[in-house]
Write a structure and sequence with these properties.
There is one protein chain. The chain is of the alpha/beta class. The chain has one domain. About 35% of the residues lie in helices and about 15% in strands. Strands 2-1-3-4-5-6 form a 6-stranded mixed β-sheet, covered by helices on one side. The chain has a two-stranded antiparallel ribbon with strand order 7-8. Strand 7 and strand 8 form a beta hairpin. Helix 6 crosses helix 7.
C-alpha cells in the first residue's frame, strides 16, 4: 500500500545518510513499528563495501516486504554476482510496511539501502525486480520515499538510473512513465553490462558538459539513455517510444527516436 497521493507533489526528505540516518531511524522510527528488525540489515553474509573505494553503487530494490523479497533466489544471485566485483558495491532495499512509511514521512527521512543506510537517490543505479503486478504501486512508494522523481522525464543525471527486470518487464507499459530502462531476459549477463555502460555514457557527458539542472539536465539524461539504448538489443527505454491505443486497447508501439 502506498501513501503517495499526488504524483506532482514530490516528497522532500531531509539530507541525512549513513550512521546518522541509522541512529535516527533506530531512535525515532523503529520503536513504533512492527517487526523492526527487517529495516536494520546486518544479516550474516551481508556485504558492506566502502563506497569511496568502488566505481559504481547499485541498489537492488524488491517492491515487497523484506520477508518476501529475501526468499527470492534471483535477488540473491544478482547480489552475489555484483558484489563479487571489486569495482561495484551492491546493496538491497525492500518496500516498507505502511506503519514504517508513515513514520519515515513524518520524520522526513529518506528510504535507504540496508547495507550502508545510503538514501536511494544517492546510488548510481536502482534496479527493481518485477515479479508480480500487485506490487507495482510499491515501486512508486520506494521512489518517492527515496527522494527520486517519480517520472523518468523529470530526472537528470543527478538521479540514479532506474531499471527493472523480471517477469513483469515483459509487459512494461503500465510502469513505463516511471522506469528508465526495462531489461528482458536473464539478469546475470545483462545487469553488469548495463550498469557499466551507464557509468561510461553518464560520466562522459558530465566530463564534457558538467552536471546540469532543469531542462538542460533532463536533456543530458535523454542523451545518456539514447546511448544506452543503442548499446543493447535487450533493453527497452520507454521515452523513445509512443504507445498507440484504439478504443482503449493497445495496438502498437511507435518509435520516436531513430
Amino acid at each position: 500500500m502506498s501513501l503517495v497521493r499526488d504524483p506532482a507533489s514530490r516528497y522532500q526528505p531531509r539530507p541525512v545518510a549513513g550512521d546518522e540516518l541509522k541512529r535516527t531511524i533506530s531512535a525515532r522510527v523503529l520503536p513504533g513499528v512492527q517487526t523492526p528488525a527487517q529495516y536494520l540489515g546486518g544479516e550474516r553474509n551481508m556485504v558492506r563495501k566502502d563506497h569511496g573505494s568502488v566505481r559504481g553503487r547499485l541498489c537492488l530494490a524488491f517492491p515487497d516486504l523484506y520477508t518476501i523479497g529475501m526468499s527470492h533466489h534471483g535477488l540473491q544471485v544478482l547480489y552475489a554476482l555484483m558484489n563479487a566485483r571489486e569495482d561495484w558495491a551492491c546493496e538491497r532495499c525492500f518496500a516498507p510496511a505502511v506503519d514504517m512509511e508513515e513514520r519515515m514521512r513524518r520524520e522526513r527521512l529518506p528510504w535507504y539501502g540496508l547495507e550502508s543506510f545510503t538514501p536511494l537517490s544517492c546510488y548510481d543505479v536502482l534496479g527493481f525486480s518485477l515479479q508480480y503486478e500487485i506490487c507495482s504501486v510499491n515501486i512508486l512508494t520506494m521512489l518517492d520515499l527515496g527522494g527520486i522523481p517519480l517520472r523518468g522525464d523529470d530526472r537528470t543525471l543527478v538521479d540514479p538510473l532506474v531499471i527493472a527486470g523480471g517477469p513483469c518487464a515483459q509487459n512494461p507499459e503500465p510502469l513505463a512513465p516511471f522506469i528508465d530502462v526495462f531489461i528482458t531476459g536473464d539478469g546475470e549477463p545483462s545487469l553488469p553490462a548495463v550498469c557499466d555502460r551507464w557509468l561510461e555514457v553518464r560520466d562522459a557527458i558530465i566530463a564534457s558538459e558538467g552536471r546540469r539542472e532543469g531542462e538542460a539536465g533532463r536533456r543530458q539524461r535523454t542523451e545518456a539513455l539514447l546511448e544506452l539504448a543503442k548499446s543493447f538489443s535487450y533493453t527497452y527505454v520507454p521515452r523513445f517510444y509512443e504507445p498507440e491505443y484504439r478504443g482503449g486497447r493497445f495496438v502498437a508501439l511507435n518509435r520516436t527516436r531513430p
